[in-house]
Automatic annotation (TrEMBL):
Gene3D superfamilies, alphabetized: Dihydrodipicolinate Reductase, domain 2 (3.30.360.10), NAD(P)-binding Rossmann-like Domain (3.40.50.720)
Coiled coil start-end: none
UniProt xrefs under InterPro entries: Gfo/Idh/MocA-like_OxRdtase_N, Gfo/Idh/MocA_Oxidoreductases, GFO_IDH_MocA-like_dom, NAD(P)-bd_dom_sf
GO MF: nucleotide binding
Domain annotation Gfo/Idh/MocA-like oxidoreductase N-terminal: ranges: 16-132
Species, as recorded: Lichenicola cladoniae
Name of the protein: Gfo/Idh/MocA family oxidoreductase
UniProt domain GFO/IDH/MocA-like oxidoreductase: residue ranges: 167-244
């Protein structure tokens, strides 16, 4: 099915023809990664703005700008990088056409939509992968190698304001990254969510905090903001295995425990391990995993079910914020919304 091209690395057999749906900020990055891959070829780019699609296609090696039907007819797989509200309709069209799908987070707008996409992929025997990039990161590997049974997790993800991404709340824009990472670490269903948030610079929440309690007793506190003065991405984890602190921006991790690192004098046998890692191209790693699943049948790391679980957690945070706001309005702490 796939046509040949000069490979970016060693030849690996058939190539996966990939179409990009959405030529915005992330769509452009996806197109460039596909064009640079040794296992894929860029079949075309689709966007309602045809001039933008053509520009991205030229930058990525001359791929044509195509209508959606023509794109689906020209590829084996699609990457959906359109605005979040369009994810379901575009992924549904691709799956019904028998194409593999890599969809940017969130998987859909509702759990019903997520369930329908999962069912369609299963019926068609096609890959459905969701773009939760942290699963392919060096920090995810470093954390999960050291903490497997967390008791408490604290995650912070804050950044200065940017207009891009404000079509959804900060929960679906930023917090969902840490929700997915926490869900991947904690092997237990969510039991309760208490949350607060506020819309400051957009129509949706720009800052949010959630306390998530799991059925096994683990608790996670997650903060996300897109109206901060600086960028900060940190995570702390407590467990019987030790204490771990990770700075994702500095790419540094410290672990205090009994099994790793250098002895800490006067602590009764505790050790301190300091770890750093090099910049890691998580998007390229995500693409490699997608190609391996489509071409080789390798199990999908972040499948539709994982995407649905992250969406369910994000929606629960949104519901918690709405309930907290109603309580504050009733008490007079804040004014009633018009």
């Amino acid at each position: 099915m796939a046509r040949s091209k000069a490979p970016a690395g060693p030849a690996t057999g058939p190539l996966l023809r990939i179409g990009i749906v959405g030529a915005g900020h992330f769509g452009r990055f996806h197109a460039l990664k596909v064009a640079a891959s040794a296992r894929s070829v860029l079949a075309g780019v689709h966007d309602p703005d045809q001039a933008r699609a053509a520009s991205v296609g030229r930058e990525a090696g001359g791929a044509p700008a195509l209508g959606l039907d023509d794109l689906l007819a020209s590829c084996d797989a699609v990457i959906v990088a359109a605005p979040a509200e369009a994810h379901f309709a575009l992924a549904e069209a691709a799956l019904r056409a028998g194409r593999h799908v890599l969809i940017e987070k969130p998987i859909a707008s509702t759990l019903d939509q997520a369930d329908r996409l999962i069912a369609l992929a299963g019926q068609a025997g096609r890959v459905l992968q969701v773009g939760h990039l942290l699963r392919y990161s060096a920090e995810h590997k470093a954390i999960t190698q050291r903490i497997t049974r967390p008791l408490y997790i604290e995650a912070t993800r804050i950044a200065p304001f940017k207009p891009r991404g404000t079509d959804v709340s900060v929960i679906l824009d930023l917090m969902i990254h840490d929700l997915d990472l926490v869900l991947a670490i904690v092997d237990s269903p969510i039991e309760d969510v208490d949350a607060l948030g506020a819309a400051v610079s957009s129509a949706h929440e720009d800052i949010a905090n959630a306390r998530v309690r799991f059925a096994n007793g683990c608790v996670a506190t997650i903060t996300a903001s897109r109206i901060s003065l600086k960028t900060e991405r940190r995570m702390r984890l407590f467990s019987e295995e030790g204490y771990l602190s990770a700075d994702f921006v500095a790419r540094e991790l410290t672990m205090i425990g009994r099994d790793r690192g250098l002895p800490l004098p006067g602590t009764g046998g505790f050790r301190r391990e300091a770890v750093s890692w090099q910049e890691h191209d998580t998007l390229a790693a995500e693409h490699e995993a997608f190609a391996a699943s489509c071409l080789d049948g390798v199990p999908v790391i972040v499948d539709g079910s994982a995407g649905r679980r992250a969406l369910a957690a994000a929606l629960a945070v949104g519901d918690g914020i709405a309930e907290a706001r109603r309580r504050m309005e009733r008490s007079g702490l804040i004014g009633m919304q018009a």
